[in-house]
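Course exercise 7: structure representation. Students receive a sequence record and must write out the corresponding structure in token form. The form below is the worked example handed out in class, using Amino acid ABC transporter permease (357 residues). Read each field label carefully; the graders check that inputs and outputs are placed in the correct fields and that the protein name is recorded exactly as given.

STUDENT ID: A-19
EXERCISE PROTEIN: Amino acid ABC transporter permease
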Amino acid sequence: MSQPLTLTLARKAPRLSLWLGGLLLAALLLLPFLALLPASHPLSLSTYTLTLLGKMLCYATVAVALDLVWGYAGMLSLGHGLFFALGGYAMGMYLMRQAAGEGLPAFMSFLSWSELPWFWWGTQHFAWAMALVVLIPGGLALLFGWFAFRSKIKGVYFSIMTQALTFAGMLLFFRNETGFGGNNGFTGFTTLLGFSITATGTRIALFIATVLLLLLSLALGFTLARSKFGRVLTAVRDAENRLMFCGYDPRGFKLLVWTLSAVLCGLAGALYVPQVGIINPGEMSPTNSIEAAIWVALGGRGSLVGPVIGALAVNGAKSFFTVLMPEYWQLFLGLIFILVTLFLPRGVIGLLRRGEK
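STUDENT ANSWER:
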């Protein structure tokens, strides 16, 4: 039962790991303040670049959350895009209420609705919106996981069911009568906690919050890795039947890490929406969940830091190729994934494992 490579390195070279981690964290926290410099300054950072980096860090958090269930417990989820989008919709409801003031959101007025649906009640309050960000993805994951793990569904069947779940959610949110803006979703946000959502200061605060969420996700993963809970999870992945013979019930362990992973995705989605400025059912597309699995596989599952590298590399390459060769960028990304699969089966982080033996 293997432990994360980053944890192994931290034990072998603690000072080096602390120095590198501290420098990287300081750089990420100082980076957004470059947006305050004049545009003519050589170190100036544009708002577009800051938003792009913030979006990529949100994706990195999703990759860490998926690595907790796939890299540790061996459960390949193809539905994490649903939890990400649900968190985004919960935050979007608050932002739409802020933009509408005392009236109805714009799309409801367009559809001639006379009052808010019951599930919109209280969404004008930030605290309640944040509670929904945690409760909706977490509650859905808890309900789905309870039935799935109780029925001993695992392997490819579990992956197919999670993909069907996110596809069903996408079809539901595409309908105008559900009260979530149909295929257009939510957009036109103006303020967040009374601050202009397009102001540079707000963008900086959102970026720092995203960095802290990613740091929290990694710290949580490392804590689980060195705990008994983490060792049981790796046993679930490597030899679940033997674990049951030892007297452990894996269902509770799987359900807890599954629900926790969904909550992290919901929080990432909540920070994604105000930075990008839109949320629609397209975020629930099964292809987005499959792409998240590619981030983890590319970086190296079961390593925590590897999925972060994979998410940043894939989305950075996507941004580069969509500008350079917009017609062929998907081919380039597919080629990158094939080459890594053939020559780096353990992911990019696996290059560092070659010296372990």
